[in-house]
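Worked Example 4.2. Consider the chain below.
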Amino acid sequence: MTEKYQGSYQHAVQFKEKLDINAIFRSAYKHVKERRSPFVGSVAWTAVILFAALILVAALVRVLGIEADGSVQAILNTSVQVLILAPCVGGLTYVALKTTLLDKPNREDFFQFFSNPWSIIGVSILTAIVSNVGFLLPHMIAIPWLIAAHILFTLAVPMAAIYRAKPFAAFIGSIQLVTKHFGTFFMLHFVMFVLYLLVGFGAVILSNFAQAGQVGMFVGVAGGVVLAYIIFTRLVPLQFFAIAEIYRILFNVTSEKSEMSDDSQPPTEETDESTSEDFRP
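Applying the procedure from the previous section yields the following structure tokens:
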């Protein structure tokens, strides 16, 4: 990975303009319509890797004779998320960032974080520990805790993967930057939650159709395929492209192609050279 995509943490800290979430979503959706193919390919690789990992874990549980009760299952799921999913998310974020910069990603861009995943795994462990504390709290506190953690850690993996910050620095840096622009990040996650919820409602309706005979089964299966297509080719790319757009704006990441484009990117704050020096949080 070349350093030109890292950007400047100092610029992110000093960025005082309000992030325009509407412009960010418009730009992200434009990329979804026009440039999503490499990202969708990376999503497919992620699905294959996770499927293989889950099969391997299930086989190990059976061979070792471990009783997969609720607590053991939770530990196994968290381990898969930290060790396998985290490098995939880093790769997806990097592919999304290159896409928003109009630089064509390749397969190596997605897989590069598997060769040195330790910063990403480290920050994923930190975020998982803090997030899982919510399950130990009363329900009235747990739900706000989990929501806040999900929002505050939005930039943790991107900072560990793209900016190459150390785990604790990425953890703290994400909290600092998201807190500073909390309204924007809240709206990002709220909009995506609503979109995923609508798909969930569609899945419930289709499941009812599937129980109404052969015709209903056909409608349910066909509808399920359509919903899966929407999730993996529209919603997931939209979410990652929106996060990449925010990273690009905050960290002042540019490329020659993106600078020549006059309408594909949301406006960014103009700064002088004194505010673009790079230092790590």
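The two ends are 20 Å apart (CA to CA). Residues 91 and 111 are 6 Å apart (CA to CA). Compare this with Example 4.1 before moving on.
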